[in-house]
């Protein structure tokens, strides 16, 4: 039985000397399955020069990369428009960023149709294979594939929060999008809250029949389950134990020259709460003058979706608040906030994780947040300060949990983290590490696929 993955981005990219697989959670999770069983990965082709069908690796192919070439107008409407100016802010409860432009849904429909056609042309009827669709870019393709292939086994994993029904229903096309999703046999979310929100949306907005975690609508039964994603734990363990990483971490501490180091590592996205975090650090410095000169905040913001005005705006806001804090508090030999707007490799990040006394991971809303898991895996004695508005917070009670909108509360948590007794640090970190081991990304893919295969077997036997 082989696998057809449908995701917005394909898992390979051009390197200086040929092609390589991209680094990322989804690629790490799904490539071993494709390599073992064979299959196809369908994703967008942003550049018309790239091949539509590419066997990978070229010399001894394990799987097929199938690109759906998009024009710049299609990319604007489907990706920058519907996905990133409608579904993204809505799902993160940041509706001030919503841009309900009608042309976005029109293009989104067309592009989902083209993805569905690509899947249909690359798969055989009735072969019992699994079609596994990823994320908010593809809400309509499950329904479109189902129309042509009633017997297919179709799954979907939604990687961001599913909002409360009252928020989801703001969308003028909420019912159409839900119907598309209900073409699936199995829909996965990170945590039970999003499962419950989805089921309530189907119940209230479509009048679907609900039986526990099963939703029946228009002759199709869909199971909805929580499958929290993890990271490649062994890889992060090995990287963080590497002698050169240990050395880098040491050098980094020396360079910053402070007794205490706090880190923040995010994509530069308005959901990540970077500005609010900086305001909390400013409040901490105001309230705790004894820490002036001996605590450094190291914030990395990775450039992301830079074409969009809302991302340019948050960049300006973060620049401004960092400048203000440093202008107010810096001394000759001390800069309170060290800010980097650039991309680092996972390997390089491990040195920062290892060096930090505390990590502040305080998104305003986040489906899971895998940086949390990377930090916990790489850290030897650090404290995790975590937003209670992340999926990860449900799984990690040993973190110091904060409301990211409460600057005073986050400022207090910074102090708590820096002054936490060694025994308590160790105990909390050990508990966090235990949970993260169980979440390993390979288990995530395996558990989802086991669940959907079981479903397929029951369907065929019926
Ligand atoms: O977390 C949701 C997600 O879409 C991921 O799938 C992706 O890696 C990340 O956000 C970055 O987004 P983009 O693909 O839009 O750059």
Short description:
This protein has 462 residues and is α/β, with parallel strands linked by helices. The protein is built from 17 helices and 18 strands.
The biggest sheet, with number of strands, parallel, antiparallel or mixed sense and barrel status, is: 10 strands, mixed
By DSSP (H or I, 4+ residues per run), the number of helices equals: 17
Q: Helical residue percent?
A: 40-55%
**Average pLDDT number:** 95
What is the percentage of strand-forming residues?
A: 15-25%
Q: What's the gyration radius in Å?
A: 23 Å
Calculate the terminal CA-CA distance, rounded to whole Å: 19 Å
Bound molecule types: 6-O-phosphono-beta-D-fructofuranose
Low-confidence stretches: none
What is the total tally of β strands?
18
> Pairing-aware structural class of the strands and helices?
alpha/beta
Sequence of strands across the biggest β-sheet: 5-6-4-1-7-8-9-12-11-10
Shape: globular
């Amino acid at each position: 039985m082989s696998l057809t993955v449908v995701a917005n981005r394909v898992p390979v990219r051009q390197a200086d000397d040929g092609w390589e697989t991209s680094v990322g959670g989804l690629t790490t999770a799904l490539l071993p399955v494709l390599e073992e069983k064979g299959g196809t990965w369908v994703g967008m082709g942003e550049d018309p020069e790239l091949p539509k069908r590419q066997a990978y690796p070229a010399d001894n192919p394990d799987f097929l990369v199938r690109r759906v070439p998009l024009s710049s107008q299609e990319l604007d409407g489907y990706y920058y428009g519907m996905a990133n100016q409608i579904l993204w802010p809505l799902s993160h409860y940041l509706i001030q960023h919503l841009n309900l432009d009608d042309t976005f849904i029109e293009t989104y429909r067309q592009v989902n149709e083209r993805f569905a056609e690509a899947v249909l042309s690359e798969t055989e009827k009735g072969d019992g294979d699994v079609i596994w669709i990823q994320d908010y870019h593809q809400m309509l393709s499950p329904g479109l594939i189902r129309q042509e292939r009633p017997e297919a086994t179709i799954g979907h994993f939604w990687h961001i929060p599913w909002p409360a029904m009252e928020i989801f229903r703001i969308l003028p096309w909420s019912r159409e999008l839900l119907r598309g999703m209900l073409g699936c046999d199995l829909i996965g979310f990170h945590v039970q809250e999003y499962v419950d929100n989805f089921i309530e949306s189907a119940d209230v907005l479509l009048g679907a029949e609900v039986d526990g975690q099963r939703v029946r609508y228009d002759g199709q039964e869909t199971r909805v389950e929580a499958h929290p994603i993890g990271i490649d734990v062994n890889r992060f363990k090995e990287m963080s134990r590497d002698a050169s990483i240990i050395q880098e971490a040491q050098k980094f501490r020396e360079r910053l020259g402070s007794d205490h180091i706090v880190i923040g590592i995010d994509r530069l996205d308005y959901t990540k709460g970077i500005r609010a975090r900086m305001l909390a650090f400013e409040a901490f410095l105001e309230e705790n003058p004894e820490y002036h000169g001996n605590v450094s905040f190291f914030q990395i913001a990775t450039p992301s979706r830079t074409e969009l005005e809302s991302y340019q705006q948050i960049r300006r806001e973060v620049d401004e608040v960092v400048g203000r804090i440093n202008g107010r508090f810096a001394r000759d030999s001390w800069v309170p906030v060290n800010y980097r707007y650039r991309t680092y490799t996972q390997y390089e990040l491990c040195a920062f994780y290892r060096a930090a006394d505390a990590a502040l991971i305080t998104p305003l809303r986040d489906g899971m947040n895998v940086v949390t898991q990377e930090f916990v895996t790489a850290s030897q004695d650090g404290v995790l300060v975590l937003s209670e508005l992340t999926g990860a917070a449900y799984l990690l009670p040993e973190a110091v949990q904060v409301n990211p909108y409460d600057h005073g509360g986050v400022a207090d948590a910074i102090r708590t983290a820096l002054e936490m007794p060694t025994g308590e640090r160790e105990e909390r970190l050990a508990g966090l590490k235990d949970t993260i081991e169980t979440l390993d990304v390979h288990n995530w893919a395996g558990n989802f696929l086991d669940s959907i295969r079981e479903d397929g077997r029951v369907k065929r036997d019926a």
